[in-house]
Amino acid sequence: MDIFDLSGLFLSGAWGTLRLFLLALVGSLALGTLLAAMRVSPTPVLRGAAATYVTVVRNTPLTLVMFFCAFGLPILDIQFASDRGLNSFFYASLALSAYTACFVAETLRSGIAAIPVGQAEAARAIGLSFRQTLSLIVLPQAFRTVIPPLGSVVIAMLKNTSIASAFNNRELISAMRSGIEIRGDMVITILIATALIYLVLALGLGRIFDLLERKLVILR
Amino acid sequence: MIQHTSEQRPLVQMRQVQKFFGDFQALKDIDLDIQAGEVVVVIGPSGSGKSTLCRTINRLETIDSGEILIDGEKLPEEGARLAKLRSDVGMVFQSFNLFAHKTILENVTLGPMKVRRLPAAKAKEEAMALLERVGVAHQAQKYPAQLSGGQQQRVAIARALAMKPKVMLFDEPTSALDPEMINEVLDVMVTLAKEGMTMVVVTHEMGFARKAANRVVFMADGQIVEVAEPEEFFTNPQSARAKDFLSKILTH
Amino acid sequence: MKKITFLTAALAAGALTLSACGQEGTPDAGGGEGAAAGDAPVYEVAEDADFSESDTWEAAQSNGTLTIGVRFDQPGLGNRPAGADVPEGFDIEIAKLVAAHLGFAPEEIEWVETVSANREPFLQNGTVDLVVATYTINDERKQVVDFAGPYYVAGQDLLVAEDSDIAGPEDLAGTSVCSVDGSTPAQRIAEEYPEADLVTYDVYSKCVTDLQSGSVDAVTTDDAILRGYAAQSDGALKVVGNPFSDEPYGVGLPKDDQVLRDAVNDALDEARDNGYWTEAFEYTLGDSSGVEQPEVDRY
Ligand SMILES: Nc1ncnc2c1ncn2[C@@H]1O[C@H](COP(=O)(O)OP(=O)(O)OP(=O)(O)O)[C@@H](O)[C@H]1O
Ligand SMILES: [Mg+2]
């Protein structure tokens, strides 16, 4: 096995990490937004449910959430695909989404709190429903105000994908482990290379969030 | 004086309205009828409940007892029917409250498109006509923060008018403005009044009251203390509270 | 009141999760000596050992402790049961007999956990003096460390349910096989038996849990490791016994310490002659019939 094979290994590892990240990004933003919306809804049951979910899941280690998804859901006979590898991919994405959604929701909630009440009042005054007020006026503004902290949440999630390798997912950490196993003479190089790939991905994300922040900034 | 086609039934009816904030009673025994086409100015000391009165009319504040009817229909509690009713009651706020992330044009087209389900082209056409009317059409593509206060408030009026409301509420529309911008907003309001719009205006601008109002409602401590024609009210107030209040605002 | 509700919910969720992973007997941490028979072997410590030409030995000698890197997580080979101070297993016994030859009693050994990622670095920077940690001798590793031994030739094998029909890797097509993420056995399955559905976790215990619950059909890694799990399963699991690779386990040494390497090789040769090796094997991995100590390779 030479350096070329090793880079192939890392390339497929990076793709594994990226696809986990992308699905979990969509999932966590969707679920996080829903949770944030529930937390500001006028219905006490929804508020309570969202608050309980956030409190429980946010204070559970991600590894445990992964355990629940990877070993608990099959027992409950919840499967997403007949292919085992694909199933594990969905379980891990679900765990990451469920976990990260709490942080997205809390971040968004702080963003919602930062929007002047007059914005929602003006929306209601022209006859927008609660859902429209939230989706057209409050959440878009909340998202824009929380882009920097949301960036941190998303970058943390990128790094959290590394836990998935312990649950039948092949990603960067798997590639690193394989690399170490076959090239014991290059352990330090392989560790540094792994760190560098995460760094590049995270810096890229940071850059995207910087651009978004500049592009979507709200003048007041 | 303004000629308005008065109908039989009042457009806004408030009957024995009570409103509490905790133990504090912000509105007491409010009875007020506003006829179609009528312009009512609400005046009174700070904290007397003017804003609260205004906001109960489109249920931005709920009431604890009594009833409020718009065009004969009782204000619904919540949900789609309330939203529908609100769209018939335009509101202009002291702090403008334009949607900060939307352009001027989008601010005005949003309601017609999302609530009245107007096609985008039609909504835009009407919005541009309204912006033209309030004199900010050339700013249509800008964002609210890029406009002066007076311009923002005129956009806010256009945004409310775009819903073709039956009645317009104004809560101190000029008190957040620099003095040189007050008139540009008042002029728009006077024109509206002359065109027969039913209006409830909380303001201390006596010039406007004299020029455009049919009645002045004077409030103190959550109650309506006096109702009179503007000229009558300003020159010959009946209650001690009104006399006291007027003496204070007239000195500066 | 609110807090208590949250706590209960959290505990319930946690319990569910834990019961999900710990079901049906993950190898019992205290049962690491499932195959152990009789008393622990005692290796005579060489009183007059002198390898002062070896820098590593010299430093260890003046410290009074020999530092050895071993696995803490592989039953039967190198395993530290929960609550125990010292690890146990075949690797540990080999380490002890080598240490005895070098003049160190078991109490003079400091055990350091090593995993795949840190064996070479630990030897290179002197964190450990020796590594006895299911350490397969190969050419890439020889670039940066030296090896004495091999002291055992493991082969990749399969752990299956007692009533399984799987008799070798050829039978794996269409079945699911579990191994540790990134390990050589996992890579071999992926490359040479792509028809098998490979499942990977971070530790073998998860694989064994899956095997016991029927979620996977086989667990694969070096037979020595599998033996440890089979021994703990009360007959529910068996090792197929048809190894399909050669994994010569060596004692890892710092590069270019020829004196130390010769000494460790001598220790292994001696262990063959005086029966220490067999004692070590039978004490930790069970019946040694049919198993032979390999010749050391003094490359
Ligand atoms: N959300 C609220 N919670 C508690 N008290 C309130 C709330 N809104 C208003 N109040 C109180 O109700 C009273 C009437 O308030 P309101 O804003 O209607 O007065 P106003 O006549 O509009 O005064 P100003 O001229 O200062 O705008 C005040 O004493 C105010 O402190
Ligand atoms: Mg007010």
UniProtKB/TrEMBL annotation, chain A:
Keywords: Amino-acid transport, Cell membrane, Membrane, Transmembrane, Transmembrane helix, Transport. It comes from the Bacteria. GO terms for biological process: amino acid transport. CDD domains: TM_PBP2. One of its GO terms (molecular function) is transmembrane transporter activity. One of its GO terms (cellular component) is ATP-binding cassette (ABC) transporter complex. It is a multi-pass membrane protein. This is Putative glutamate ABC transporter, permease. The keyword Signal does not apply. The lineage of its organism: Bacteria, Bacillati, Actinomycetota, Actinomycetes, Micrococcales. It is found in: Cell membrane.
UniProtKB/TrEMBL annotation, chain B:
SUPFAM superfamilies: P-loop containing nucleoside triphosphate hydrolases. It catalyses: a polar amino acid(out) + ATP + H2O = a polar amino acid(in) + ADP + phosphate + H(+). Residues 12-246 form the ABC transporter domain. It is an enzyme of class 7 (translocase). Keywords: Amino-acid transport, ATP-binding, Cell membrane, Membrane, Nucleotide-binding, Transport. Pfam families: ABC_tran. Its main location: membrane. It is found in: Cell membrane. The keyword Cell membrane applies. It is a peripheral membrane protein. One of its GO terms (molecular function) is ATP hydrolysis activity. One of its GO terms (cellular component) is plasma membrane. Its EC number is 7.4.2.1. It comes from the Bacteria. CDD domains: ABC_HisP_GlnQ. Belongs to the ABC transporter superfamily. This is ABC-type polar-amino-acid transporter.
Automatic annotation (TrEMBL), chain C:
PROSITE patterns: PROKAR_LIPOPROTEIN (PS51257). This is ABC transporter substrate-binding protein. One of its GO terms (biological process) is amino acid transport. Residues 65-288 form the Solute-binding protein family 3/N-terminal domain. GO terms for cellular component: extracellular region; membrane; outer membrane-bounded periplasmic space. Transmembrane segments: none annotated. It comes from Sediminivirga luteola. Keywords: Signal, Transport. The keyword Signal applies. Residues 65-279 form the Ionotropic glutamate receptor C-terminal domain. It comes from the Bacteria. Belongs to the bacterial solute-binding protein 3 family. SUPFAM superfamilies: Periplasmic binding protein-like II. Coiled coil: none annotated.
